[in-house]
Amino acid sequence: MPSLSPHSFSVKHGLAKHRLTRLGQAIILGLGSALLFTGCGGDSPTTRTNTDDGAETPETTYKLTVTSPVKLQNAVVRITDTITGKEIDQKTISSGSEISFDIKASYADGGRLLIAEISGKDNTSFYFDPAKEQMASLNMPLHAVFLMLPIENSTIVSPFTEIAYQRTLVRANNLDISNPNLSKIDINSFASANREVYSTFRVNPIKLVPAIDSLSSLSKFIIDTKDVIDPPNTTEEYLNIFYATGHIKLQQIENPSDPTPLLTFAKRASADLRDGSLDGMTLAGAGKNGTVFLENPIISQQIVNNDPTYNNRSDKKELQVALASSQKSVRESYAARLGGAENDANKDQLGGAMAALFARLNNPDAAGKDYFAKVDFVTGLHSSINENIPSVPLPRSLGAGNYKNAFGLGNIKLTKAAQKIRNSSCNEVSFSDPNAEEKDHIPEYKNIDCLIGANADGSNSGYYNAVENLVGTYTGENQCKLTIYFNGDIQLTNGQKTVSSSINRDESDSIIRLQANTQDYLLNVASAERNPPEFVQIRVTNQNVVSATAGIVNDIKAKPFPGESGLDREDLVCKNFKPVFIKP
């Protein structure tokens, strides 16, 4: 049950949430290991003998190889445990693209999430930038979350694992990347973030690929003819490395004076995808002047999904298509910049960053170049080659666009049989359309004005996260601050007092439409188990948090879903929150 407390909320963390049982491993492997696990070798543990106060203690370790997709010079590689947040080991790559560690069995048995980081040591630290075709300063860190199993392991650290890392933090309720609580990271947030990166960029972030130490390295990387006919791993690796390089090349083309395109792309794309979509926006409170809009976005700042009728509440397929259609122009625009044709008339010619990339190769692979000349950069699909793309959670789509569900309540298409929906008082009302089955009949819809049992669990694919579009930090008058986390945890403070609660499908949690045919809502977050029952009420208009109030209801049976001004006692009132979905 959610709770309301005068103290900041805390989450208990244990080893169990990071470890996987054999059954859990089997389930996750069955659901799609291609987007979850790093490359693995044989089951070959190493046993070492350490001396501690004269006593010999056998210690089993497993080899971990950390790789970079580009050559590194004088780069520091760190391995961190997510449970304790402590560094396990650290080594330096003097010159090369990989390094190995011996990881203790205690960090691998049962499966455990670790973090690999590659960073610069000083001004002698460099990496090869394929867009600049030269070594560049390694002046920002890159991270990767990976699952360490009790076998020989490999993981890659790249701009795309950095994007996935930052999205993983958000999904695990870390809105401040400068000081994250790594123990909150779990297997669901990690796996979902990787799928989102793949569905956006057409790059599998954890796919191991040969390292690039010069542009000629790409000329040696080709699609085998047999793989074009029946493409297994070789084609996937080819597409992964060329799509990845294409996104980075686009950064360099549009910002020719940038000395580190690879790192700049990682920084800009990570900031953008922290909200789950490549849409020119980030989390509430983290963008320009406290809005969601980024200062220097990859995608133009004009894609705001504030229409809940696009949410996958009913008529699922139809609504997902509608949401995808609403983002068509920005998706096509970025695809054209990346390398896709504007339309079918010139589709046989490469354009954008991919064309520039192939033009720089001395001996471009003919089959690969032909592939990119014919692939649809909007959908990521080829007319004749099926690359067996792993499925992604709909309505996430390949490419740019805002595919988050808008906060609020949509409508329902009526049928001939009576359907029950809730009105603004949260009472059930029956509606029907007697002509629903007649030919050429225009469907009738009714607004849903109340939803009880609001859900904020983004880890269950059977539910959508009702508050995902609101995740972030909001500031108001009198030092008021409201933080909404990805899993529905909320904190409301006025500088002196803090209250907290959580949206978890409790029957007392509710979303109520305050005015007919508007996007003006009251979100009730209840702690009905308290005596007297406690609530945090959040007023949201057009995706913007307007106010928040914490207080009690004396009789929950009489007022199970209190409306605006429905609290019997108001303990903390915050008003005039700064709008985040209005451009500054």
Task: Explain the overall architecture.
The strands form five sheets. Strands 1, 2, 3, 4, 5, 6, 7 and 8 form an eight-stranded mixed beta sheet that branches. The chain is built from eleven helices and 22 strands. Residues 1-35 and 341-349 have low confidence and may be disordered. It has three domains: 1-20 and 448-584, no CATH class; 36-374, no CATH class; 411-447, no CATH class. Helix content is 21%, strand content 26%. α2 packs across α3 (187-201), α2 runs parallel beside α7 (261-273) and α6 (233-254) packs across α7.
Quick structural gist:
The chain has 584 residues and is α+β, with helices and mostly antiparallel strands. Helices cover 21% and strands 26% of the residues. It folds into three domains: 1-20 and 448-584, no CATH class; 36-374, no CATH class; 411-447, no CATH class.
Key features?
584 residues, alpha+beta, eight-stranded mixed sheet, six-stranded antiparallel sheet, 22 strands, 21% helix, disordered N terminus
Q: Treating each run of at least 4 consecutive H or I residues as one helix, how many helices?
A: 11
Distance between the termini: 38 Å
Question: Largest sheet at a glance?
Answer: 8 strands, mixed
Spans where pLDDT lies below 50 across 5 or more residues: 1-35, 341-349
The percent range for strand residues is 25-35%
User: Level of helix content?
Assistant: 10-25%
Shape: globular
Mean pLDDT: 84
Whole-angstrom Rg:
26 Å
Structural class: alpha+beta
Annotation, overall tally of beta strands? 22
Number of domains: 3
